[in-house]
Amino acid sequence: MEDHKSNKRNGHQLTDCYDPVSKTLDIRSDGMYPSNTLSNLCSNGFRLDGVVCSSMEGFLQSLKQQDRDKQRQVCSMKGGNAKKQSTTSWQTDQVVWWRGQAIDRQGKKYQQLLRRAFKALFEQNERFRTALMSTRGITLTHSCGEKDTHMTILTEQEFCKILTEMRDSFNKQNNGMGTITKSIKNIKFKYIGTWLLDQFQQPGWFGNLVVSRRSWGAFSIYSHSYRSNGMPKVTYSTRKSAQRAAESMAKKHEVPFAVYKCLFCEGWHVSKIGDHKALSEKSSKEMEDVLASLKTMDRHDGTNLDIKRALDTNIPDIHPAYGGLRGRTLSSSRQLYAWKTLVEAGLKQVIELRADYKSDLYKDLCEKSGVAYFRFPVAINMIEEMAELFPELCEKIDRGNFYIACAMGLHRTDIALCLYWVFYAADKGIAPPRLHGYLKADGRGPEKILRMLNAFYRFKTEKEGQKPIPEDVFKERKEVIIELNRTLQPVSEQANPTDSPQTPSQHGQGTN
What we know:
- The chain is 41% helix and 11% strand.
- The chain has 19 helices and 16 strands.
- The strands form 6 sheets. It has a 5-stranded mixed β-sheet, with helices on both faces. Strands 3-4-9 form a 3-stranded mixed β-sheet.
- Strand 10 (257-261) and strand 11 form a beta hairpin.
- Helix 2 packs antiparallel against helix 3 (68-75) and helix 16 crosses helix 18.
- 32% of the residues are buried.
């Protein structure tokens, strides 16, 4: 099966069709996800009035066929083959056909048919539905579409209007009264007894049911299905199996997870929990203890960060990077044990990459420890702020002695270091960064890195009136990132677990 989230198809680079400045997405078959998945040429299958359609293009081209057998044949074709069946004979009298019935192309009945077809596609095809709902807040366009209704079976305006209305309608249904109505309609009241009995057996059940009332969230349909696409959440047949999954996820993500009986199906689900205020108070107390211990520390008197000593802290996913360190965020109370050691080892700068991190505790800890704090929010909707802060980011990385991290120290950290290399460090002959989050070996392609690089490139070009680097050079550097993603293995699988200095030609490693 074709990977529609890949950045390449048949060896050719796909186009990033999202413009972060205008917040528009151009729907094209040669675009990167979700643009390509929303294209009528994509092999998104569905069934309408008992007729199997292998793609929306197949359905649309079949409307030009009066013969029902021929129409079924075209419907069963995938996008590219269906497009070859296009004919202009219908344009003469503006009549199209569906299951033997003539329909006026310019009439209301035709518009109703189009909406029924797209509704069937949306409801039956999870891939298409997920792609469309991922465009919330984005204006959809179709630049290669025809505008004259007399010349095409589906104009750009009709196409984008139908998708937008369908997306916004689904989003509206998932909020307010729509959620209440949907919940009441689907809840299985026979499971309430089991759910309530399970709640009474939980520690702090009174607070959950009466004080915070968080347990009553189980009565929402979204305790059973995802709000983004309406698909059911992972279901476990027994409480025991769900508890094992919760413990595994808690260990992996370092946040607590809880198990609850579903009121909409026979099974059990797992959900992330946590009283953020209580966690903050706990972290604050632990930070005070750490700060007190710094008064008696022996700070490293060298000019460079003592990398070996820092690595010995065994912070999850900690690795050298350009004279500094990368790893899991130090704002977590689970990593506070290593703070004193890092400061003693010569840590001078913390670079925070989370756009959604609001607490001041981490910043306060840095300031009280004599460590500079710098926030570089990595998010596709914050390109303008990223571009403004980018020179300062490069300056701080160049100085070394830093610790750069997002929540897990993997994906946004990869993106930030790739931005640094592509738009700055590569010109100085510095090697590309060693990727740790986006590795094909771990099932993650480079698409999100490339999307951010493309968005950054476009924004800089439009704002400054010239390209930040030549386009051919930009493409070459992206190819390096793609190759790193494809060839590198997780550090734990390599003989040498550290990122040793390499020459720029050795693309697998960064300069440390």
